[in-house]
Amino acid sequence: MSEPDDADDGWSTGAEAGFIDPVPMEDDPSELFAGDTGTLDVDVRRVLVRLLKRRFLLAEKNQAQWRTLLENQQIIESRLHDLFVRLVVDHDRGIAYKQQVRSAELDVPILLKDDPYNRAETLVLVHLRTVYQRERGTGETSARVDIEELEQTVLTYFDPDDNNLARGQREIRNAVQRLVTDGLLVEESAGRYRITPLVEVVLSTEKLAELNQWLREQNGVAP
After folding, report:
1. Structure confidence at residue 220 (pLDDT)
2. Are the C-beta atoms of residues 180 and 55 closer than 8 Å to each other?
3. Do 149 and 22 contact (CB within 8 A), yes or no?
4. Which of 7, 45, 172, 221 has the largest count of CB atoms under 10 Å?
5. For the chain, which residues make up each domain, given as ranges?
6. Which residue ranges are recorded for the region named Disordered (predicted)?
7. CB atoms within 10 A of CB 58
């Protein structure tokens, strides 16, 4: 039996064999990095990461990511559910945030740690929520506060025997900065802040009433 010649030995390479030359990884649109097995588009992944890293996603500050979230809400929710995390999308306020799933029937591993507000932050938050509720009740579409007015009010909730005014002011300003970072306040000009609708999510009407009652009991002063 004669040996096959080179033209039909089955070992030809290139176009003659019908093979496709390997494509470099960076040219493969389905793989974002070496070994990537993810299936989400890069913009959807960025929204998912932001939701995991930050407390809130605001439509007015992140319009492109908000659109991506709404267009891909089902798959993003599914990925979060895999981590025992619930997604809440408040369309009226333009706010999206996550919640830790907790169940008495299921042993749920806790991914999201509680990061409570400290005393100064809570006192500032109570005042912001009160101002926001009052302004909205009069028909205003937004509510604003000045740092001086905020300090003057919140300092009345501090220990009256603490004469270190500078320390109290510093605590309040640090509290304001955290609330800016969390998206509850937006600094529109130096020392002038707009209160965002997030304040209603963080501090419900019921919780506000509880804290106001506590303040009355502590200091005899209602915010």
Report:
1. 54
2. no
3. no
4. 172
5. 37-100, 119-219
6. 1-21
7. 20
Span 93-131, pLDDT tens digits? 899 999 999 888 889 888 887 778 888 998 999 999 999
Full DSSP string of 33-72: STT----S-HHHHHHHHHHHHSSEEETTT-HHHHHHHHHT
Over the stretch 123-165, which tens digit does the pLDDT of each residue have? 999 999 999 989 988 888 789 999 999 999 998 888 777 777 8
What b/e readout covers 148-164, taking b as 16+ CB neighbours within 10 angstroms? Answer: eebbebbbebbeeeeee
CATH superfamily, domain at 119-219: MukE-like family, C-terminal domain (1.10.10.2260)
- Domain 37-100, architecture per CATH: Orthogonal Bundle (1.10)
Number of neighbours of residue 196 by Cβ within 10 angstroms: 27
- How far apart CA 105 and CA 135 sit, in angstroms, is 43
State the Cα torsion 127-88-72-95 to the nearest 10°. Answer: -10
Question: Cβ contacts of residue 204 below 8 Å, gap of 6+?
Answer: none
Task: Measure the CA–CA gap between 151 and 179, rounded to whole angstroms.
Answer: 14
Segment (H or E) for 188: strand 185-189
pLDDT of residue 221 exceeding 60, the answer is no
